[in-house]
Amino acid sequence: MDDVALQFGQFDQRCFYIAFDEFDNQSIEKSLSSEDAIIRVFALLDRRIGKRRLRSIQENLHNEGEVFRTFFNIRAEAEGIL
Asked: Is the pLDDT score of 38 beyond 70?
């Protein structure tokens, strides 16, 4: 799944389920570095990612796509980081 398809919502339910299955069957580290934007978002929302890791991600946020940054802001706000 590429970021452009994700931005426009041009993916089907099957892509979502495949991405979740991959996320669910690999380490959080591997999920965070995945090329699939949906998998990275799943990892970002995972409770195994704590405040320290979120701050680390925040330092490199300018390298991420708009969708990832949006979900990062949601998570960071919920954690009281923003």
From this structure: yes
**In the structure encoding, which two tokens stand for residue 79, read together?**
């954690």
- Pick the closest to residue 66 from 5, 20, 22 (CA basis): 5
pTM of the entire structure? 0.82
Taking 3-state DSSP, the helix, strand and coil percentages for the chain, each rounded to the nearest 5, stand at 70, 0, 30
Percent share of the chain, pLDDT over 70 = 87
What is the length of the chain?
82
Sorted by sequence, the CB contacts under 8 Å of residue 54 that are 6+ apart come out as 72, 75, 76, 79, 81
Rounded to whole angstroms, the Cα distance separating 18 from 10 reads: 15
